[in-house]
Every structure is written in structure tokens, then in C-alpha cells.
């Protein structure tokens, strides 16, 4: 059994990004809008800020109080859309009460480095070039690290339809027979036992046990839940290690890779807007 170490891989990717940025005359710029006092959201933004500083990406953090009207957020996004020094805009989710669809749709699709703007999701569905959600890119990169030919193999995603949709398309583009199921599917175990690639993103700690994982599977754990002083994934790690061929840890798996791929998207957004740099498409 091999651990797919997202921290190590993310460091390699960030080093490549840093080298690419050093060749640019203008630094790529990322602005993150953070609303409210949620500790997890503040932690995630601080990790993104740290990664930006390490790679040479200009970073701006705009913080708003919890009950800020969404019109104010949308007006701020409009100003960021018009700034030539800001190439990526991200609204940290979840929002404490504002409508996330309205806020995200206000972002210029060319600056939507989180990849959740409806236009980018439509382009992805149509198989056209676009900014792909960073978490999807991170998952794909981790799967690629296994060096396994997965053409014609079975993938099962346990998650909401909203999370799964861009991942589903990307996996099918790679000739994986992919199915999405909910955590409460009555045939859950039957389906997970057939999965050569099992991806779980439900936020239920230790929900998937080794006994319902296919022998030799690639298991990607996207879930993160704080239990006491620990962060725990959706996969029960100890039992999964006895069955899986490859497994992502929590923490240290998908999380660091999502941040690294966000930076990759910022660099790609910079290229799209300026016409300078190398195409960062990796999916």
C-alpha cells in the first residue's frame, strides 16, 4: 500500500510555479473575499496566502463582516474584475448567509480561479478549455501519480451532485466508467466494492471502512472533519490501508494539492488575460 502524499507533490508543483513566475515581468495577482468569522475558512485562506507568498503571487485578502449584504460583495467583485493587476478572484465558501450562486456568478469567468462559475462549468461539460475547479485538478493529479492505466476502469464518487459534476466529466474524459452515489445509497457497499478508483467527499468522519473497498483500489479521501483536536477524513485510514493499493491521507492529501492547483489556476488565468507564459492545462 502506498500513501499518495499531497504535501510532497504540492511542494514540487509550487516550485515549478515559482520558477515560471520568476520569468514573468508582471506578477500574477489573487484576491480572496472572506466573509464572517468561521475558523476553518480563515485557516484555509491563510494557507492560500502563505502559498502565494512562497511562489511570488501578489495576494490581497478582503474581509467582510458576517451580515454584509451580498450587493456589497458583488460591487467589490466588479471592481476586482476591472483591475489589470488581479488575475484571479476567489470567494471563500461557505458564505454565512449570502447567496453563493449570485456572488460567484459576478466573477469574470476568466478570473474564476476556483472554477465554479457557471460559464466555466459549462465549458468543462462541453470539453472546451476553461478554468477547472482546483479540487478536481488536485484529485486528478493525485490519481495520475499512481502511474496506473485506468482506461475502462470503474470509478465511484460518493458526494453531492454539485461537487461531483465537474469531477465526473473530467474522469469520463479519461475513459473511466464513472458513477456518482450519495452516502445513504442502499447499495453503497455493493458499488464501492466494484470501484477501481473510490473518491469520497461527504464530511462524515471514518464513514468508509476497508471492508467495503475493492482490493487494490485507488482511494481518494476529500472529506475533512474536525474531531476533537484532530482533522479526520471520510475514509477510516487504518482499515483502508489493509485493502487499498493507494490512499490519500487526511490531512496532507487532497488539501495541499487543492491549494497548489489553485495557484496553477492563477498562473493560467494570468496567461489567458495577458497572453504571456506557458499553458498550464493539466486535465
From TrEMBL:
<keyword id="KW-0521">NADP</keyword>
<dbReference type="GO" id="GO:0005829">
    <property type="term" value="C:cytosol"/>
</dbReference>
<keyword id="KW-0378">Hydrolase</keyword>
<dbReference type="GO" id="GO:0000105">
    <property type="term" value="P:L-histidine biosynthetic process"/>
</dbReference>
<dbReference type="Pfam" id="PF02882">
    <property type="entry name" value="THF_DHG_CYH_C"/>
</dbReference>
<protein>
    <recommendedName>
        <fullName>Bifunctional protein FolD</fullName>
        <ecNumber>1.5.1.5</ecNumber>
        <ecNumber>3.5.4.9</ecNumber>
    </recommendedName>
</protein>
<dbReference type="InterPro" id="IPR020630">
    <property type="entry name" value="THF_DH/CycHdrlase_cat_dom"/>
</dbReference>
<feature type="domain" description="Tetrahydrofolate dehydrogenase/cyclohydrolase NAD(P)-binding">
    <location>
        <begin position="133"/>
        <end position="272"/>
    </location>
</feature>
<comment type="function">
    <text>Catalyzes the oxidation of 5,10-methylenetetrahydrofolate to 5,10-methenyltetrahydrofolate and then the hydrolysis of 5,10-methenyltetrahydrofolate to 10-formyltetrahydrofolate.</text>
</comment>
<comment type="similarity">
    <text>Belongs to the tetrahydrofolate dehydrogenase/cyclohydrolase family.</text>
</comment>
<feature type="domain" description="Tetrahydrofolate dehydrogenase/cyclohydrolase catalytic">
    <location>
        <begin position="4"/>
        <end position="114"/>
    </location>
</feature>
<dbReference type="GO" id="GO:0004488">
    <property type="term" value="F:methylenetetrahydrofolate dehydrogenase (NADP+) activity"/>
</dbReference>
<dbReference type="GO" id="GO:0004477">
    <property type="term" value="F:methenyltetrahydrofolate cyclohydrolase activity"/>
</dbReference>
<dbReference type="Pfam" id="PF00763">
    <property type="entry name" value="THF_DHG_CYH"/>
</dbReference>
<dbReference type="InterPro" id="IPR046346">
    <property type="entry name" value="Aminoacid_DH-like_N_sf"/>
</dbReference>
<keyword id="KW-0368">Histidine biosynthesis</keyword>
<keyword id="KW-0486">Methionine biosynthesis</keyword>
<dbReference type="InterPro" id="IPR020631">
    <property type="entry name" value="THF_DH/CycHdrlase_NAD-bd_dom"/>
</dbReference>
<comment type="pathway">
    <text>One-carbon metabolism; tetrahydrofolate interconversion.</text>
</comment>
<feature type="binding site">
    <location>
        <position position="224"/>
    </location>
    <ligand>
        <name>NADP(+)</name>
    </ligand>
</feature>
<dbReference type="InterPro" id="IPR020867">
    <property type="entry name" value="THF_DH/CycHdrlase_CS"/>
</dbReference>
<dbReference type="GO" id="GO:0009086">
    <property type="term" value="P:methionine biosynthetic process"/>
</dbReference>
<keyword id="KW-0560">Oxidoreductase</keyword>
<keyword id="KW-0658">Purine biosynthesis</keyword>
<keyword id="KW-0511">Multifunctional enzyme</keyword>
<keyword id="KW-0554">One-carbon metabolism</keyword>
<dbReference type="InterPro" id="IPR036291">
    <property type="entry name" value="NAD(P)-bd_dom_sf"/>
</dbReference>
<keyword id="KW-0028">Amino-acid biosynthesis</keyword>
<dbReference type="GO" id="GO:0006164">
    <property type="term" value="P:purine nucleotide biosynthetic process"/>
</dbReference>
<dbReference type="InterPro" id="IPR000672">
    <property type="entry name" value="THF_DH/CycHdrlase"/>
</dbReference>
<dbReference type="GO" id="GO:0035999">
    <property type="term" value="P:tetrahydrofolate interconversion"/>
</dbReference>
<comment type="subunit">
    <text>Homodimer.</text>
</comment>
Amino acid at each position: 500500500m502506498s500513501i499518495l502524499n499531497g504535501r510532497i507533490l504540492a511542494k514540487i508543483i509550487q516550485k515549478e510555479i515559482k520558477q515560471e513566475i520568476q520569468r514573468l515581468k508582471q506578477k500574477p495577482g489573487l484576491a480572496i473575499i472572506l466573509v464572517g468569522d468561521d475558523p476553518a475558512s480563515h485557516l484555509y485562506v491563510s494557507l492560500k496566502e502563505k502559498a502565494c507568498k512562497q511562489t511570488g503571487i501578489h495576494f490581497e485578502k478582503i474581509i467582510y463582516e458576517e451580515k454584509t449584504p451580498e450587493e456589497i460583495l458583488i460591487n467589490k467583485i466588479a471592481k476586482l474584475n476591472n483591475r489589470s493587476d488581479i488575475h484571479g478572484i476567489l470567494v471563500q465558501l461557505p458564505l454565512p448567509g449570502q447567496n453563493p450562486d449570485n456572488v460567484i456568478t459576478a466573477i469574470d469567468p476568466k478570473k474564476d480561479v476556483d472554477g465554479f462559475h457557471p460559464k466555466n462549468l459549462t465549458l468543462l461539460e462541453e470539453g472546451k478549455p476553461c478554468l477547472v475547479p482546483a479540487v478536481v485538478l488536485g484529485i486528478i493529479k493525485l490519481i495520475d501519480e499512481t502511474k496506473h492505466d485506468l482506461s475502462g476502469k470503474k470509478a465511484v464518487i460518493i458526494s453531492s451532485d454539485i461537487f461531483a459534476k465537474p469531477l465526473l466529466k473530467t474522469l469520463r474524459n479519461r475513459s473511466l466508467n464513472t458513477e456518482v452515489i450519495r452516502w445513504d445509497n442502499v447499495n453503497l457497499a455493493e458499488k464501492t466494492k466494484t470501484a477501481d478508483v473510490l473518491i469520497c467527499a461527504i464530511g462524515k468522519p471514518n464513514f468508509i471502512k476497508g471492508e467495503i473497498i475493492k482490493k487494490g483500489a485507488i482511494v481518494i479521501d476529500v472529506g475533512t472533519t474536525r474531531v476533537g483536536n484532530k482533522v479526520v477524513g471520510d475514509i477510516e485510514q487504518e482499515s483502508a490501508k489493509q485493502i487499498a493499493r493507494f490512499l490519500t491521507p487526511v490531512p496532507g492529501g487532497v488539501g495541499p494539492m487543492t491549494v497548489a492547483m489553485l495557484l496553477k489556476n492563477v498562473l493560467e488565468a494570468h496567461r489567458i488575460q495577458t497572453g504571456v507564459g506557458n499553458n498550464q492545462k493539466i486535465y
